[in-house]
Amino acid sequence: MICFCLICFIFFFLFTLQDNLLLNVLTTTAKMGFEDNKSKQKGVLNCSDPCITFLLLYITCVSAPVGGFFLESCHLSHNAAICSDRHLKLVPKDIPPTVISFDLSKNQISRIQAGTFTNLLVLKDLNLHQNQILKIDNGSFSNLISLQKLTLNNNRLVKLGQGTFDGLSNLLELRLNTNNIAAVSSTAFQSLIRLKLLDISQNHLGTMKNLYMMLQHMPQLQQFTVRRNKLKHFYSWEFTNHSLDLQVLDLSNNPIRDFRITNNIFPNLTCLSIGDPFSVIKMEWDVKNKTFLRQVSSIDISGLHTTLQVMEELLETVNTSLTSLAANGIKHNRTKLINLACSIPTLSQFQFRRGNLRIITSDFLKPCVHVTELDLSENHIKTINENAFKSMEKLTVLRLSQNKLSVVPSAIQTLQNLSELDLSNNLIGTVNCHDFSNQTKLKELNLKNNSITLKDCVFKDLVRLQVLRLQSNQITDLKGAFKSSLSNLKRLHLNGNKLKAIRNGEFNGLKSLLNLSLHQNQIETLDKYSFVGLIKLTDIQLQSNALKKITFNLLANLRRLDLSDNRIQYPENATLTELPFSNLSCLEELSINAQHHRGKSTLPSNFLQGLKNLLRFSARNCQLIYLDKDTFTYTPKLERLDISSNDLQTLSPEHFAPIRNLKSLYISRIALQSLDFLRDAKLTKLKFLQGRHNQYSVITEDVIKSLPSLMYLDLKYISFYCACDNAWFINWTRNSKQTLVNGAYNYSCNYPDNFKGKKLLDLDLKPCLYDVNFISFVSTSCIVCFVMVGSFAYHLMRLQLYCAYYLLLSWLFDSKYKNNQAPHQYDAFISYNYHDEPWVMGELLPKLEGEQGWRLCLHHRDFQPGRSILDNITDAIYGSRKTICVISRRYLESEWCSTEIQAASYRLFDQKKDVLILVFLEDIPTYMLSPFHRMRKLLKRQTYLSWPRAAGQPGVFWEKLRKALQTGNDPSEENVLLTLTGT
Fold this sequence. Notes:
Blueprint: H1 2-14, H2 19-33, H3 37-45, H4 49-63, E1 75-76, E2 80-82, E3 101-103, E4 111-112, E5 125-127, E6 135-136, E7 149-151, E8 159-160, E9 173-175, E10 183-184, E11 197-199, H5 208-215, E12 223-225, E13 233-235, E14 248-250, E15 258-261, E16 271-273, E17 284-287, E18 298-300, H6 308-317, E19 324-326, H7 334-342, E20 349-351, E21 359-360, E22 373-375, E23 383-384, E24 397-399, E25 420-422, E26 444-446, E27 467-469, E28 491-493, E29 515-517, E30 539-541, E31 560-562, E32 589-591, E33 601-603, E34 616-618, E35 624-627, E36 640-642, H8 653-656, E37 664-666, H9 677-681, E38 688-690, H10 701-705, E39 712-714, E40 720-721, H11 727-735, E41 740-742, E42 749-751, H12 772-796, H13 798-813, E43 826-831, H14 837-851, E44 856-857, H15 859-862, H16 869-878, E45 880-887, H17 889-893, H18 895-910, E46 916-920, H19 926-929, H20 933-941, E47 945-946, H21 954-966, H22 974-981
Parallel strand pairs: 2-3, 3-5, 4-6, 5-7, 7-9, 8-10, 9-11, 11-12, 12-14, 13-15, 14-16, 15-17, 16-18, 18-19, 19-20, 20-22, 21-23, 22-24, 24-25, 25-26, 26-27, 27-28, 28-29, 29-30, 30-31, 31-32, 32-34, 33-35, 34-36, 36-37, 37-38, 38-39, 39-41, 40-42, 43-44, 43-45, 45-46, 46-47
Antiparallel strand pairs: 1-2
Subcellular location: Membrane
Organism: Cyprinodon variegatus
Signal peptide: 1-18
């Protein structure tokens, strides 16, 4: 259709041109396009090729996707590509080059091939954790010039070959733990010159040679973790003669039998871990000089199987610098080990877990006078002597969790400097008033997972306590424990108990409390005095209770309130007389979500009254069947609204009129029939929209354009209508550079039936590009116009139409005869009328050919029989140096003679060559030349010869004609020529 209209336009344009342009095309095309009889047919058949090409280019420009803001198997979030747990077998190719983080964890990738990460030049973090990678091709990471963190944990790597990490010159952290690596190439790590952390734990490295091959190329390595490998010895001389910059070395859980350091290769080492609880062979320790490990401040010998003598040598090596010691899992020579450890004057942190202790005697920890942090968790301690900690006056942190204590040990009363006490996961039943009598400096107390019964005086002496953990204690009554105590407490955890009610003034003493956790209890009622005294409270968690009625009017500073999973319900069209949040002007976040169905409900229109600074509101799965248009009138600053999983079915612009600052909207699973309400809601600041599992099937252009700030759109599990109604949305999804359409590649069709199950983005949009009715109208109009114009042109402009045909061919082939450099066959072509043939044959031919020797072309003698007259004329004109036009009255009346002079004149003006000689056999008045405007133009610009005027001097006539024929085609000779031929 486009081609047809284009032709019509061309013809219409051509008909307005003057005949000289038509003749230009006639002569040029005739010479260019008709070298043989087949050329003409070829030209006609190819006329549509440019049109088809134009059409294809148009379609390509209009419909070709340019790479939209969505990924086939991943989604983007803040310059991070997240492709975790997508069952991928290959690394996606459509990741934008601007991402700085790329998460490919928990997939099925088995091989990393060269060129996989070609375009990710600014990527800093690549996570390939938990795949099935067996092989990494050489140079696979060579383009990741900005990468700083690479994670390859939990794969199936067996060997690190040459060039595995080539190009990663800026890498800082490399994690390879939990693979099957048994061999390392000597050049695998040669590019990692800036690496600071290497974790190659839980592999099958068995020799020091492997470690040497790694460390020799990493001069800046600070943390080296080789846990759970198969190293059987550690010899410093097998590394290098140069010192390393290591600060942390973890060799734990290796069956090391011999540890020897003969030179100072670790001058900056501060943390050392060594020991294997499963080893049956005792380790030997040999450090030639105590200064070799003089910087070590933390050492972990958990599970170390060795002799007491070796243990003593080991601790003596770090005697002057050790501040932290972990000796977990050591069950032999425990008393002697503690004596050795605590004799180190610098030791301040001592961890002795899983030591199978049952009783802590008065002498057991007596040497530990300098220890400030003691961890005895995960033992079987039942009894602690009241003087067990008497010598530990400096102790500030004591951890006794996961033991079998039934009471708070009285021994802690001697620890007057204690600031943190952990008694969680024991069997403590009752807490007495004197249990914490001397703990005036205690700031954090952990009593969770016991079976505590409270008393009103139990916390009376904890005047500096800031954090109290009482969760999961089966507490049914607070017994006034917080009415007058804990004035400095900031965080109170009472979740996971069996509280049914909060009595008036129960928290009256907690003047400084900021965070209160009461979730997962059985609280049924709250009144406005339940939280009296909590004047600074900012966060309260009340989810998973049995609340039916709520009021929080006394919590003026509350910022966050969670009421999820309660039994709060209101009948339809209810209006509250007692407002639950009327004084919570500072509240920023409110949640009333529900996990379990509890019957149909509504929200009273004034439910949120008083929350003028609310920013986030969530009412997910509340079985709401109606939402009043005035619900959000009281929350003008609302930015995040979640009303998913309800039965609302419809929403209107009136709902959102008061909340024009909304930035995130969650409306999944509410049986919405349409998103048209967004068109007039004017949510110009909305950036995040999630609308999964609804009943609309078409996303219109006006809906999307009404959200100019939209950056994230999630419409998963929508039954899309795969037709032209969604053509705009599909194109927008493909091309949008602002909005990420989450999971767009997996959007599927549900209608019509023949498209069911197909991917939405696979829909062919070509039939949707144009309106069929409009195309039919335009096509019909073009055909009618073409027929009318064609009929008119055929009857009135037949010759011009014929010329226009050649013009079109000349434009399509873009060639002119003037580029043809073939030599001339004749000196001159004689153009004359057959009535003037006697003069030509009797006068002109004898003089020019007989006497002067020129080679002339005459139509009756030299035209090729069987060819068209037009072809012969153009061949004769362009095959001759000159054209002599013998003009008479009969000549002017001849159609073919007129064609010959017009073609010759075109050659004159188009090629800028002096090729035309005019010879008048008769004196023709000017008025007789008026119909021949081309002739008149030539006479004004070109001199000519007149035979009648040369009657007295025929010799001069023939001499001038000879000189005119003799003159070349150089434009500089034009004046000479005109002078010679003029009369």
